[in-house]
Each structure stands twice: as C-alpha cells, then as structure tokens.
Amino acid sequence: MFKNIKSVSLMLALVLSLTAAVFGQEQTGEIQGTVSDPQGSVIPNASVTIVGSSIGFRRTVAANANGYFVIRQIPPGNYKVTVGETGGFGAQTKDVQVVLGTTTTANFAMQVAGSTAIVNVTDDLGTPVDTAESKIQTSVGAAKIELLPKGNSMQSLIKTAPGARGDSKSGGYTVDGASGSENVFVIDGQEVTNFRTGTLNGNNDIPTGLIQEVQIKSSGFEAEFGGATGGVINVVTKGGGNQWNGSFGMQFQTPKLNGATRPTLQRFTSGSGAAYTQTVEYFTGTKAGGSDFFPSATFSGPIVKDKIWFLGSYSPQIYTADVTTTFWNNAPAATRVQTRDPENYKNTNTYEYGFGRIDAAPMDSLRLSATYLWNPQVIDGVIPFGTNTFGSSPASVNFGGSIGTLSGQELYARQGGRVNSNNVTAQANWTPTSNINVTGRFSRGFLNEKGSSYFVPSGTRYICYAGDVTNPDACPQGSTDPANSNTLFDVSVRTNFEGDITYFFNAGGRHELKGGYQRFRVKNDVDSGYVGPGRIDTWYNGTTIQDLGAPSSVTPGAIGSGRLIRYGAFGTGQNTNQSIYVQDKFQISKRFTLNMGVRFEKEDLPSFNSFAPPINFGWGDKIAPRLGFAFDMFGDGSTKIFGSYGKFLDRLKFELPRGSFGGNFYRIDFFEIFPGDGPTRTAYTTAKILGNFNDAAGGACPTNGFIGSGLSRCQFDYRIASNDPNGTLFDGKVDPNMKPFSQNEFTVGFERQLNANYVFRSRYTHKQVVNAVEDAGIRNNEGSEAYIIGNPGSGLHLEVLNQLGYDKAATPERKYDGVEFAVERRLADNYYFNVNYTYSRLFGNYSGLASSDENGRTSPGVNRFFDLPFLGFTATGQKDNGRLATDRPHVFNAYGSYIVDWGNTSNSTELSVFQTIQSGQPQTTTVAYITTVIFTERGDLGRTEMLTQTDFSATHKYKFGRDNRFTMALDLNILNLWDEQNVTSFATSLSAVTMSPATFGLNEVDGSNAFVNGQLLQQINTYLAGTPTVLNRKDASYGKPNGYQGARSVRFGFRFIF
Fold first, then answer.
1. Exposure b/e, 38-59, CB count within 10 A at least 16 = b
2. 59 is in which domain, residue-wise?
3. 3-state secondary structure string, 241-263?
4. Helix, strand or coil for residue 970?
5. Residue 761 and residue 747 in contact, taking contact as beta carbons nearer than 8 Å
6. Domain count, the chain
7. Could you read off the pLDDT of 389-442 as tens digits, one per residue?
8. How far are the Cα atoms of 325, 381, 537, 566 from residue 397, in angstroms, in the given order?
C-alpha cells in the first residue's frame, strides 16, 4: 500500500513539474458584471475579489473605466465575489455559482459606506440566461448531482439533458439522434473515449462522488471541440480548498430488493424433414444471488493555505454474483427433464477508482493542476450459465502439467481477467494581463483490455445448434463449450498535447478571440482471438451448407452441416490527429453577440500490416466552420433568441483499420456431415476440416468438390486487406478521394427567464449526415467479401459496382429533426424541478458509427450497413430508408427534488424523482439473405409499447457538532421504482435459415440485382414457406416480444461527512 502511495506521489510531482509547458478543453467558466452606484452610474476601477467557498481559488481584478469587470478561467463551483469599499461606498458580497462554459453575470449596485450588503444566492442550482451564448448544453453541478436519482457513475447523469437518453440499440447514449459511438467523453480535459469503439469503458465511467460538474454539449459547441457528431460529455472532478473536508461511506445493493427476473423467449426444435417441429415458449428463471458494495473515502484540504490544495479519494465498485444453475435438456416444458445436479458459480467484478488531484496557485496569475486516476477492472471467476440452462453442461479442460484437468466449478472459479488502466493529466493556466490568457495541457491514458484471459481453454470450441437425433449423446442440442478466445494483450496508449491562447480586445465591439493547437496520438498493440483452435458449429437436423449461406452444391446423403470459424486480431498501429482552431465571441453591442469559429484537422489512420497507412486527411480535407448568434431581446438579460450552424467531423476509430488494414483475421469454412464421419462432434477438428488449404487471400468456394484435402467445401474470407497496393479493385481498395465523415447541423432557440426562479427554454435542431466512411463491400468469385473503404454509393465504390454490373447502390442517410421545450425552476424555498418534452423524427437507412440495425453493434466504419451491394434496399425493390430503430418521436422527462427541513437546522430529508415517458421504437421484419436484410419496409411490425420509468431517491441528513460541522447521511436510490417491464424489442427475423443467390439459381451479381429490383420477393416467400417435407425455414419466434425493460434496482447506504 505504501509503495502505491509513493508511486502516485512521485507521478503527481512529475506531472506538476511539466504543467508550465503544456494545454484546450473547456474546464472553467467566468463571471462578469458591472459596478454602479445607487443611481445606476458606473463606478470605475473598483476592486473585485473572488474566493472559492469550497474550492482552492482566489483572484482579484479591477473594474475598467466603464465599471465593467470579468474574471475568467474559474473552476466550476460556488464562490464569494466581493467588491471592496470605494468612493464612499461600502463593500458588497455575493455568493455566485460558476458553471462550465458559461458566463455568469453578477452586477453590483453599491450602497453608502456603513451599510455592507451580503446577497445570498447559493440555493440557486440553475444558471441565469447567458445572453451571449448560442450553444446547447446542460450543466449538472455537484449540488444537483446530490439531489438526483442516479446510478453509480457519470453516464447515469447524461439523461438530464433534453434529447439525450440511454439506449442499448444505439450502443450507449444517443444525443440528438446520433449513435452511442459518436460521443466524446472528457475528464479533466483528457479524452477517455474508447479508441476503437467510440464508447466509454467502465474503467473511465467514474463514480458520481468524484464529479464537481458534468456538462453535456448537444449542439452548436465551439471549434475547440472536435471528434463528436453526437454529444460532448465534459467532466470536471472535485478538488481541495482551504478547509479540511472529507466523507466516508458505504452503499449496498442486494438482489432481494431488486425487481423480478424477466422472461426469456425460447425456441426449441426437434426432428427433421416432415417430422420437424418448433416450439416457442417463455421461461422465467429465479433470481441470482450476490450483493454489490460501493465503499468510498474522500479527504481534501490545503497543503499550503491559499497556495496548494489536494484531494484524494478511493471508491471501488464491487459487484458480486452467486448463481446456482439447474441443468435441463434442450426441450420444451412438456418434455423437459433435469440432466444433472445443480452447480454453484461465483464471480466478483471490481472496478477500482483511486483518484488524486493537486491544485496550486503560486501567484494570482498562474494556476496549476494535476490528476492521477488508477482505474483497473479485476474479474475474479466467471458465471458460465444463468440460474437455468438448456442442453448445456459444465465443461472440462485439460491444461496439462501440474494443473491437469479442471471441471465445472473449479474451472470457472479460476477464470477471469484484469483490465489495467490509468490516466494522468497536467494543466496550467496563466493570465499575465487582464487581456491575455494562456493555457496548456498534457494527458496520457493507458488501457490493456484483458477482461477474459485467465485459464482460457486452448483447444477447439464446439457448439451444437441442432443435435444428432440418431445419437443424441454425440451432440446434445444446445451444448456449448467455454469460449476459447484469449487475449494476450490489447494495449492502447493515448497521449495528448494541447495549447491555446485567448486575447480580449475591443474593435467594433468586445472580442474574445481564442486560438489553439491540439495533438492526439493513439497507439494500439494487440494479440487476441482463436485463430489456431477455431470454433466448430454443427447442425444434425438436415440443415444444408446452403442454409448456412454457402453457395456450394448440396451432396446427397448429408445429414447436416457445420462451419469452422476462426477469428483474431494481431499487430500494432499508431495514428496522429492534429487540429488548429480559431474562435471569436464578438459582442457587437450589449445585446447582440456573434460566435464564430473554424477548425482544421490533419489525420492519418494506421495500418496493422506492413503496408503504408492508406488514409491520410490533410489540413484542407477536414475543415469545420462554426457560426452562431445570440440576441438579448429586451436588453435586460432575461430573454434571448439564438441560432447556430456547424459542420462536425468524426475522428476515425481504430475498428476500421484493425478490420480492414491487416489487423483482423476472420474466416468461415463450411462442411457437410455424413453418417460415417464419426460418432461424436469431436470427430471434426480444425485440421481435418482445413486439410492442406493454406488460407489463400480471398478464400475459395467452388460449386462442387472441396477447397483442399480436408472436409471444407467453401471458405469465406471476411477480412481481405483493403490497403494491399498489389490488390485489384475487386480485392478491396481505399478510395483516394474519400471525404471524411461529416454532419451538418442547424439550431434556433429561445430562452426566457420568467421570474427570479423560473426559466423557459425551447429549440429546434436539424442534423444531417453529409458523408459517411464505411467499408462498402462486394462478394468476389469465391463468395468472400472485399471492401472499398470510402463513401458508400459514390466515388470508387460506385465505380466498382458499375464495372461489375450492379444496378443500384445505396447512399447513407440520417436526418434528425427535433423540437424541445423545457421549464426549469431553480432551487428556492426548498424545491426545484425541470420538465422537458422533445418531439423528434429520426429518418434514414444509417444509424451512424454504431448500428441500431444490429442491436447496438459498436464497430465504427465496419458495421454491416453497406457490406453487400443490395444492402440499403428491401425485397420490394425500394430503398429501406425509414424511421430508424432508435426513433422515439415523443420523449417527456420530469425531475426534481424537495427538501424537508423539519423546522430545524440539524435534520433535513431530500426527496427526488426522475420520471420519463417515451414512445415505443419501430420494429422491422428481417430475413437472412447472405446477411440480415430488411424484408419489405422499416417499421412494418409497428412499435414497441410506450416506455415509462420512475426513479426515486431519498437522503436524510443529520448535522451535529460545533457549527453543524459534521453530517451523517442515510441514502436510498431506486431505479425503476415500480419495476415496470415494458417490452423493448420483438423477435424480428422471419427466416430460420440463410438464403443466397445460389438458393434461387443465380450468381452474385444477378442475385443482387434481382433483390434490389424486387424480383425475389415472391421467391423468398415461397422458399420460406417450405414444403410438406421441409419445415425448418421460418422462425416460429418471429413477431413475439423478446426484450424487456431492466428490473428495479435498489441501492442504499450511509455517509459521514465533515
């Protein structure tokens, strides 16, 4: 423990020593105001001092000749602002809240000497109307965080922003219709977004107790913010002050108080030919055991009063699971029997959060800060099954040597992994004069994603989808071996340098001109997968290789088929993204402000093979202008209209180069099963299936015969490298004229302070994807997929399709239109609330970097949107554009809190509620034609039911000691209070088998053209209907609910605060 503390101390000391050299992202707010006498005449040169109430910060400035003052680069929090005695007028003090990225106005009307005024507004949890801003952002400070029903971590606060909500189909949190892979997450100026998926790892989803303020930027944000076509979630952590403060506590969560287990839709099959049957039913299991623990300890104070402050915190999140599994045969309830004695499995999943922060102000004009976050994830044991499993049994693995064979509980108890992670930031803020501010920042993040790497089997994994009806012991239907995908390492290192300078001057009005440079470097080194042992899936029920998607002919006498899957990621890649930006807040008059900016970026995307990086965007390729205005309608700071236009560009994620530039290996071999091949499934091995085939680039798939000396009839290569300079256009290429991913957006809005406590806000926003970067594919002569990396439906992709004779090509479309209305009451008289309503439309065929058509798949740039020429069309021959899967036209949110003071200063009870009511989401029929395709139109199955949820929290605080310095708090937090289980999805796949052009006697080009021209609609319906002896082509679970709202979650605990 001492060694860890010493290491952290040395790291922080090193970081502080570097801060003078380096800095960009928005981490502060500002206060402005005018000093006047009782008659309204300005008082020049008055001394204005700001002191942090609980934050180490102090600064003194002088008002100018017009009585105007501004104090910039202030960390968010509560402050006392004092205007000293001047010109016969007494001192006056105001308590003011500073919010990220916002200018708070604090005007002082002085009174005659001897009548010192103190104005207390610390109860204000909101912000006044900022009449100079045109961006859309929601800021949630520590006081409001305390009063919200919430989860344990920062992402649970995003829901407070209108237009933002969590959605598994979006791959995370959607902001104004964008997918979850299009947000940028920033903590203390350091971007912590996952380099590959564009989402937020649990390692960096820090506890809410560490947060001073979180800011959700939705639209119109400044040029210094890049890489986001969704939202920017900007977090500033708490720091120390001149007073010693601390808190110690523990929270708990137990399944006994949580909601009921949700039903699971199950489909059972048996027999073959005319005897084939399907049974669909729901099964509801019992609750799993295990409790979750959330201890926390935070201590802060001065190292040198008024000069150096610190905060230290340790707040791990410990999730435990205790599951007793009952094993059943893979059969419906009528014939279900228990196959073996139950087994018990345990798992502990710990997210460590050790955090330290030091702030220093060696002089009034210089502020330094540094943070260190130690945030590994430790997984001890795995849970292989739920409380009930069908057709499966515990595995046994022979590891050899002194370990020998491990089975069941003993095996799974030793499995797990560790995701090592840590982040370091250092920043400096220098204000040499009242007109100049210079900032600099350095940050470094380390992540090694080895979440499942202990005691991983090294042999072949077998999955039996349909059992051997003549010898059921040979392949028990539903049996699944433990995963054999092993990660030796998956290290990513992110190093950022940023710097900017802001100059304030008057020229035709007041200017706040800011320019900056940012340099982001990401390096990834990976070795993972199961290429050597492979995974073998088998079907013994008459399923043919054509049913699995292979175009090869079916051999008479085959009783089933199988496939060998091999997947892995290998190699090292590194890229650099640089940006230069300029922005100007130009206040032309007291009532009218222009916010203008432009961002230039230079970016390359790495190769993971020996070839040169194929994607290089120069300074002229990624130009993002931003323009906004704000108009104070009445000149009194109470009402504004505003608008903005912007172009926003994505920062490319590593999922694309790993998948398309040599980092991934992904091949599927298809083989047939015959009665004499062997009595058990293990008769099929990787070597026996491959034979002497050498994995030639592009695979091989003859109509008849075998690809080598093994059993494989056909091999698809799903990862043909698109950056091979020796490859042809039909092996995959990178479009040299590719345009970067971009989105245009336009917003207009209105904001009105109704009275001292109420604010009304509204806005209309239009956002539209202009260019998308994806792997747009074709099938080569061997049936493997080759990809053009570029802008689907245009450029090189369209040229290749035309050369090959394809009739149509889809282009990406995503349009979001939303109207919002919100009324907020600030905290006064012990209560506050926010009520907001959003009416929106999300339309197109492309959900963004995460795919809602694939249930939230987060593979930016390599999702299945345009992987084959007919994708983007339906079997009717029409484009598949329509309401996207995450579309919810009506979203109503209301949240607020009431504080019961019990008539004294010692006891108080805080009661808080968050209520959401949302439209259902569209459900769409799909079929498997090589891959999953939309059958006739989006939303043909209607929508799921309305989603409603009530969250509730209560905290009772008892203060004691001198000046009530000590507080004991008892907390209760309930998500989904009424345990509602609204349906969130249906089973939408009509087909139980995979069709291909060969199914209808067509080659690849003709099969694609027939589909996009509507010529296969009737043939597909006829084929799926089957015959009296072929009954396995339709999925009997189609159209039935298969997803439900999460169960009630109850968390409770205590805290001691001083």
1. eeeeebeebbbbbbbbbbbbbb
2. 2-119
3. CCCCEEEEEEEEECCCCCCCCCC
4. strand
5. no
6. 4
7. 998 889 888 888 899 999 999 999 999 999 999 999 999 999 998 899 999 999
8. 19, 16, 19, 20
